[in-house]
Amino acid sequence: MRIKINTIFSREFCDSYQYDVVRKIEKLLDEELSHRFQSDLIETFDITVICMSPAFCNFVKAKRPKYYADKTLKPSNSITPVVTLLKYFTAEFIMDFDAFYKAEEKECFSVLGYAILNFIEALKYPAALKKFEKEKLLQTVRDILIENSIISVHDSI
Q1: Is the pTM for the entire model greater than 0.90?
Q2: Which residues neighbour 33 within 8 Å (Cβ) at sequence distance 6 or greater?
């Protein structure tokens, strides 16, 4: 399985290390999950992290998760005439602004790691993914984050 992490951040994050933290965790999880976790239902797990300052938080809401077993899209403003989504799952979550924005770079890794774990644990999957191994994915992500010292083995989510 592949993982992608997108961001919707407020303007306070311009040119900040938080973007680098997101990219590093995305790269780590993508590389490790591609070897450790295989699913017949999901090939790409697309997460969008929303982190907005209190002044802007009312303007952005997390959308419901969507699953595309096999969908062909024809975007009107794209240079690609057709986009095919195959076994593609997308979901968004809102992250605590103060905890992430005020954290030092090293602490940002654990703040984001715990946020991703909590998100995966609480996520309501669409009915088409009823047989998806949610607990196995959660445990695999937890193991990856612990092995790379992003979260502590002694903390619970």
Answers
A1: no
A2: 1, 2, 3, 45, 140, 141, 144
Q: How many CB atoms lie within 10 A of CB 102?
A: 11
Alpha-carbon dihedral sign for residues 46, 52, 116, 133: negative
Count Cβ atoms below 10 Å from residue 88 Cβ, excluding itself: 19
Instruction: Give CA–CA dist 112/128, Å, rounded.
Output: 28
Apex CA 118: angle with CA 30 and CA 151, to 5°? Answer: 65
Q: Which one has a higher pLDDT value, 78 or 18?
A: 18
Amino acid at 50: I
Beta pairing class for 83-94 and 2-9? unpaired
| Region of residue 8 (left: phi > 0; alpha: psi -120 to 50; beta: else) | beta
